[in-house]
Amino acid sequence: MDSGQATAADPRAVLATDHEPDNAAIESLADVLEQLEATPDNVPSIRRQIALMRELGMTDEVQATVLKLASLIMLDEDLWLSHLDDLISRSPRPLSLDSFLDIAERFEQAEQDYLSLAMLLRHVEFILMCAGASSPSLAATEESAPIAVSADVTELLQGDTARTMLAAVVQRGQPLLAESHLLWQPWLESEMQSLSGKEGPERDDHIAYLHDMFLSRMTIPHTEFDSTSSAYSTFCSEYAPHEYESRLVQATETAQLAKNKLSGEKRYGKTRQDFEQEIAYGDLATKGPSYLAYIKWEVDQRVKNPKQTSSPSDSALIRGVFERAVAFFAHAAAITERTIVPRVDIQPRGKGKGKGKGKQRAEERAEEEAALAEEATIRSAVRAYKEAEASIWARYTSWMAEAQEPTAETHTRAVRACPQVGATWARLLKEIELQNSPVEEMSTAFERALALGLLTEPGAPISDIVDLVICRAAYEVRTEQAQVSKTGDPSLRLEKFLLDWAETRAPDLLDQVLLLVDMPTKARASSYQLVLLRAGIETRRGDLAQTRQLFERAIQRSDLDWPEAVYEAYIQFENVHGDLGSLLQATTHIEKEQEKVTRRREKVAQQQMEQYHMAAAEPAATEVEVAAPVEAAPEPPADETDQQLKRDREHTTVLVTGIPKGIDSSRIDGVFQDCGHIRETTILSSDEYDTDAALVEFRRAESIPAALARDHRKIDGQEVSVSMLWRSTLFITNIPRGMDDPELRKLLSPYGSILQTRWPSRKYAEHRRFCYVTMDSPASAQNALELHGAKTSDGFGLTVLISDPSAKARRSDAGATTLFVGGLTAKTTEQDVRELFAKHGTIRYIKLGFDPVKQVSKGFAFVDMSSEAEAQAALQLHGVHLNGRLLKVEISDRSRAKKTAESKATQPPDAFAEKRGRTVRLLDLPEGTQEGLLQQALEKVVPVKRLEIFAKGRYAVVELVSQADVGKLLLRPEPFIFNGAQITITEPGRRPPPPPNESTPATATATATAAPQSALSFAPRAARKPKAIGKGRHAPAVDKALPPMFVASSTQDGADKSQDDFRAMVAAKNKQREAKLTENREQAGEKRNARDEEDHEVKRQRTE
Fold first, then answer.
1. In Å, what is the CA distance from 987 to each residue of 768, 917, 934, 961?
2. Using CA atoms, how far apart are residues 741 and 770, in angstroms rounded to an integer?
3. Whose CA is closest to 294, among 278, 315, 311, 313?
4. Three-class SS state of 424
5. pLDDT band with cut points at 50, 70 and 90 for residue 175
6. Average pLDDT, the chain
7. Residue 761 — φ and ψ, nearest 5°?
8. Alpha-helical regions (H) of 403-492
9. How far apart are CA 13 and CA 9, in angstroms?
10. For the chain, first and last CA: distance in Å?
């Protein structure tokens, strides 16, 4: 039965039939199990569960629960011994091999916790009982009788397995200098017993093994050297009489170093043997100081001899003293804690007012108070022991660090041993940070410290949790210092927690908490969430006037992030708590403020348009569009200014909900066609809802007020809602390389419905990892800001912000203000460049060319100044020395990309042919296909280097990494499905013509389809039939290209020629002309193809 089953077991169902149930214990156990369902790793609850299960006789469940507890913390030796004894006694006889190995594994697990002599002795005893051996040094008890084992166990222990297992146990006990002989002696006696039954060479080998066993023992410092020497002398006199003298001399020389370590090394007037005697004859009160002095003696290597400033450090002995010390303090804490007597609630013995009843109750209260005081004293002593143990673990890890030994495992053992001491957890967190471990490991350790419940249980010192939190906070400061927001947390999680705690748990402190929360910060001052929180608290407190004042102040703020939510809450408040007069007054105020909000938004939109017009007037600031294929039908010409403007979806889009299923986008356009020019209409359909929704994007922001007036209009008899998606679009960057659209949607789904995602094209920049996500409401977008700063799988903090198109508009005029800086060294940093250029004006941004693989600068940077005048002033830095090099400073040349493209265009034709061999076309793309999403889907099949969509032709050109990928994609048996449509994949030269318009006649379409189209939109001229050569009076000139037979015949007299020879000559001549015509036509086509490819490459380079 595993630990999970033990936790979820019904106590009434597993009670033994012969055990009388205790209803109170059963109910208590049921409560504990219910608590563990919520906090499964809570150590106090698990300990309580074990005690109740033992009281109810649930032995099997106790075994599983103890193992669960052992996986969380270290157990003291008494709990381990009780668990092992129950496991051994309850195992079926004869003991099977699986049961034997399971028990052996439990012993191994127990010995990894604390160094315990009792545990090691029990392990030795178990091995000998299973092997059928006896040892006079072990007490002859009923439990130490041989255990009946199966034939498999007997076969396993007949070889060297039992000897190896015993040797491992004895080796673990070597640090016990005064008690290790208690482990070694039973092993020796079992070997001597095995020797008595052997003869011949096998006996000689066993005697040689015993010699090595004695000599190995002589190299280990222990207090029973005399007994070991005496035993070896007896053994040699009996089994090696001829080598007696030489054997004992060898043993004496071998033991010299170990004896010197035990009693020869003296510091501060003491030796190891002196400390061992103090500990052996000490009690619980004196052993602790002795161990502390012993540790100080071991780690201080100064000796009495002044000529020898230090002695060689024996790390095994030092480690052994530390292990013994922590085991002692842990055992002392355990036996002290067991002296706590469980309290029983004293029930009243009667309701009468007889004589002596009051005196009796007073005595009972006094007894209870005395018991509580005694329990507090005991728990204080337990705490002192655990703190002492924690300090020893700290010194242990410090010594290991000084000795340049790995400390990670010791830190982990320390928190398992002292999980209730916050300083121990803090040291573990620092070790994790020091090792540059992943942030997930830091988070796991921090959460595990809290999940155990020992730092937060009643009576625990508050300093423990403070130590832990401060250490974690300091780590966050060190790792996130550059990303700390000075505006606060937009989700107000701390404020929400603090207000909820004060209102429910500490109402006396609520006023002070409100004063703290009301302190102005940028995040709180403009947050609608704080307004609703404060209004709710004041309403529950009955201060309606204060609530009304809060709403009035809030709706007058011009920077309120979601005023509509506050308006709705204010009206709801007046409907419930106000009268008709206050409701009408609130409505009037809200209408006035709503008009102000509308004017502010229109003003912002107007400023956007003005900035866009300014940007459109500057040719250098416009973006270069990739030319569409020539066969694609052009769009109707629009206003030239609109073509120059960048899209502003956030301020030019409305959401239309409640649309009937299956409606066409043209029907929606008909509703809004009078509002302004519609750029795009996107239908949002989902099987989860009975109706559809749509995003209608206009060309200009001035169209939005008229579109909002279409709210509650009916489309096909069904009323629809029209709302503006203001502050509902998120800008997300630092997205992990492996995250695609479904994973991003899954990440954001807890915060609201996702209407649309817009991924950037990667055809010009492979490493663009950002996305625009449109949520269903401003509240959903605001809640999603909780993800800002969350760590990704790449180790970077995720950036989640409300999209601000105005920021992009402000950057669009970066023409003559951007400087190119060359000649930088590899060690140049962004700060170096900033300090140099800051003297000449305000720097908007610096983009340093940086190699992420080599972690060095690429030697150039782009510096954007705030004005053209400042950029011109900074040109005087041209030729200045920086880090030993002359700088090149000039205005960034936008024609550089064109020059680069022209230079690349001069590449040999083989480069274009190789690239063409790695290119495929995707046909029949769905309407509105995004390049980013299509590339994500295709990259799940083959690696993609570049992808470009030609929307009018509904096809895409894809450049793959290798020609093998092209073959893999073309020969793929499964169809490629994207957005529910099957995509046709062809080679570059097999592109069909664009879809015909409705006005195109069917015959013309059929004709166009019948003729194959070139990959570069070039249709060769139709071949002309050669004219037949008529009969001439004179013989034609001799053509050396004709066959000899025809040449010979042409030199003869015309009368001698036959009609057949003449016809053959004409046919050969015509065939030759046709061959030349075909060759010329192919050459012309290849030249046009190469020229078109070059032009297309130049256009692509211009956009980079």
1. 28, 9, 18, 15
2. 11
3. 278
4. helix
5. very high
6. 78
7. -70, 140
8. 408-417, 422-434, 439-451, 462-480
9. 8
10. 65
125 burial class (0-12, 13-18, 19+ CB within 10 angstroms)? middle
- H or E segment at 170? helix 161-172
Contacts of 659 (CB under 8 A, 6+ apart): 668, 683, 691, 692, 693, 694, 715, 718, 720
CA pair distance 554, 552, nearest whole angstrom: 5
Question: Which range among 43-57, 412-426, 889-903, 1076-1090 shows the weakest confidence by mean pLDDT?
Answer: 889-903
Cα gap 568→560, rounded to integer Å? 14
DSSP state letter for 262: I
Spacing of C-alpha 259 from chain mean position: 55
What's the pLDDT tens digit per position in 318-369?
A: 999 999 999 999 999 999 888 876 554 444 444 444 555 667 778 778 888 8
Sign for the CA dihedral angle at 448, 452, 453, 459 comes to: negative
Q: Report the DSSP beta bridge partners of residue 270.
A: 267
Structure tokens at 951: 């929307």
What's the sign of the alpha-carbon dihedral 286, 292, 295, 296?
negative
pLDDT(1043) > 50: no
What percentage of the chain has pLDDT greater than the value 70? 76
CB within 8 A of 690, min separation 6: which ones? 661
- Opening angle at CA 944, ends 942 and 945, nearest 5: 150
Strand partners for 693? 657, 684
State pLDDT tens for residues 387-414. 999 999 999 999 999 888 889 999 999 9
pLDDT tens digit sequence for 582-631: 999 999 999 888 888 888 877 776 665 555 555 444 433 333 333 333 33
Burial classification of residue 839, based on how many CB atoms lie within 10 Å of its CB (0-12 exposed, 13-18 middle, 19 or more buried): exposed
Q: How many Cβ atoms sit within 10 Å of the Cβ of residue 216?
A: 14
Residues in the chain: 1104
Q: What is the pLDDT of residue 811?
A: 42
Q: Would you say 781 and 731 are in contact if contact means Cβ atoms under 8 Å apart?
A: no
CA atoms within 13 A on the CB side of 1033: 0
Closest CA to 803 of 824, 827, 820, 784: 784
